[in-house]
User: What shape does this take?
Amino acid sequence: MSARGELRGWADVALIPVLNLVVALLVSGIVVLIIGESPMEAMWIMLKGAVGSIKGWSYLLYYSTNFIFTGLAVAVAFHAGLFNIGGEGQAYIAGLGATMTGLGLEFLPWPIVIPLAVLMSALFGAFWGWVPGYLQAKRGSHIVITTIMFNFIASSLMVYFINYWLRPVGKMAVESRAVGNFDFSTFDLTGAYIPSLRELSLAIFGYRLPSSPLNPTFLFALAVAWAVWYLLWRTKLGYEIRAVGANTDAAVYAGIRPQKIIMVTMAISGGLAGLLAVNEVLGAQHRLVLEYVQGAGFVGIAVALMGRSHPVGIVLAAMLFGLLYQGGTELSFAKPEINRDMIVVIQGLVILFMGALEQTFRPWLEALFFRAED
Assistant: This one.
């Protein structure tokens, strides 16, 4: 490959996303300035709130865990030329699988229950992704429309199941009973309860970390990111997924069945989104709570775009959005004038420049590099 080709590849993978991010933050600073606050002060508060303490880092990594799963889900579908916008519903339904396993098998020891609950989370999410894949592959339904509709179906189903099947008698809160319990003084762990790092540090080392929902699922998310990389670039199935996404006609000529790949890819994508339930249901809430996904499925789209659908980029982009979430929360406390809606605006600007406007600066950069090489 020529030096020019390498430069273009480097610019596409790293420079363009960074440039888009800087512009998004500059525009966000203008918005903050308009409402009468200092952009530099607001940025400092966000950074300090997210990375200036152990508690800030804990929340950043907790949010990032959700975004890694949903970002990987969107990215796998992207590689097959599919736009899975149903990660919200797939993660939601996966919570049902995790909860049913945790409650139904709570009499078994936790080394058995937790892996089964993780597996059922993935399987429930995979099924909720496979159905739209089947409808597109076999019936010609548009994947975007069906996955959006399945988000609404999942939301309605979860209200029904929690209210009429999983909510304890006499309890007003719309949530299931706990999937397990953990007594850190005796290290008595039951059911599908994944302890937080604070509970583990107290039980093992006697050291009390700041309270946060961060749990070992973050390490699991990193392992899943590596597994997705291996799947896409080191296996026959991964090659077939990328071939279908790059050129369907050429894939057919090579003996690949696009219909099968579409269904398999959407099942994998749904399963990855479903793993969000491991972090939330098993590791943070320890029960099935209404609306526990909280938009992470849609944030995964921006994470996949910003990460260029590569697992390494997705992990970094997920951490950026984790920073925006945690730093935005601290900012809304420190500056009441910059409320949660303003934080959503800032996140939306990042998504706008990383998604719809991601190619804005490409012609200028290519012209600049061309002149530099000549």
Q: What stands out?
A: The two ends are 17 Å apart (CA to CA).
